[in-house]
Amino acid sequence: MLKLKALAAIAAIACSACADDTCEGRVKAQRTGNPEHLKQLLQTKQCQGCDLRGANLRGANLMGANLQGTSLIDADLTNANLQGADLRGATFYWHDGGHFGCRTTLVTKFVGADLRQSNLSGTRLSAVIFLGANLQQANLMRTTLSGADLNRADLREANLSQATLYKALLNQANFSQALLVNANFEQAVALKTTFEQADLTGASFYEAHLRGASFRQANLSQTNLQATDLREVNWNAAKLSTAKFPRGFRPSNGSSSN
Fold this sequence. Notes:
With about 260 residues, this protein is low in regular secondary structure. It has a domain at about 25-105. Helices cover about 15% and strands about 0% of the residues. It contains 3 helices and 2 strands. The protein has helices spanning about 1-20, 25-30, 35-45, and strands spanning about 95, 105. The chain has a two-stranded antiparallel sheet.
């Protein structure tokens, strides 16, 4: 009798494990953080290596917070104040990868958030939502922003040197005076985006969509603009002498000086 009960218990545990391995179970697990860590963050603004998955931090005041190495998968930081926050090494993205037919992606939301002077250097931010966020003077060096939504984001004077923005959405974003040396904008969509006075030395916009963008007074030395949609672009006083354009394209109003 005892043996039968033991076997039944083992079977129940096995079934429970199977249930947790469903699409729904795995997604739920990725949306479930540690409530004690959330309390700690709100009380101290110090939460290195915390588990804040799925946390509701809409409108939270996290100015100067230390969130290094913290998991923020599926967290909602809409309109949060993260000015000067340290987010290096944090996790913002989870993808199921098609396991048992599941194809779920969970990302952090920074819609309208204040991330001025924040530090996100070297962080993977693929598909993260920064719609309308303020990233002025933020450190985004060597970040991966592939597929990220930066539509209408303010990136004035931000440092995105060696950042990857492959297929990112950058419509009407503002990169004025930003440092974009060797940044990868390939296949990005940047309609009516401002790059005025930005340093784009060695950057690549191969196959990007830049219709209506402004590069006024920008430095495009060695910038790759081949196979790129350059209709209605403003080149006024931009440094273009060594830029690589589509065959037969002749920009107007650009500077030939180095």
